[in-house]
Amino acid sequence: MYGYIIDIVLIKYLKGNDLMKITLPETAIDTLKSILKDNQDKPNNIRVYFAGVGCGGPSFGLALDEKKEDDLTYEVGELQFVMSSDEYSQYGDIIIEDTGFGFRVIPENMKDQGGGGCSGCSGCH
C-alpha cells in the first residue's frame, strides 16, 4: 500500500520538474523568435500538440498558446515550449526540424521511421 502512494508522489514530482526535452537547430530558433516578435499580442509559449494520425504516423504542430495546468515546459534559446503531459507521456521528447518552408515536428523515438509525411500508401490522394 505504501509503495503505491510513493509511486503517485514520484510521478507528480517528475511532472513538476518538467523533464521534457525539445531539440531544434539555430535556424528554427531564429525563425520562431521572429514569429513571436511579429505576434506580440499573442501568448509567448510555443505549444507542441498532437494534430492527428495520417498514413505516415502521428502528426504534430506548433502554435502560440497559454500554458495549461497539466503542461510540461522546456526552454531553449530563450523560447518557452509547452506540451500536454498526457501527449508527452505517450510520445516523449520532440525534435523540430526547419525544412526551409516550415517545421517538421516529430517524436525523438520516431526520427528514423520517416513519420510525419506521406509513406506512399495513396490514402491522401
UniProtKB/TrEMBL annotation:
InterPro entries: HesB-like_dom_sf. It comes from the Bacteria. Gene3D superfamilies: HesB-like domain. This is HesB-like selenoprotein.
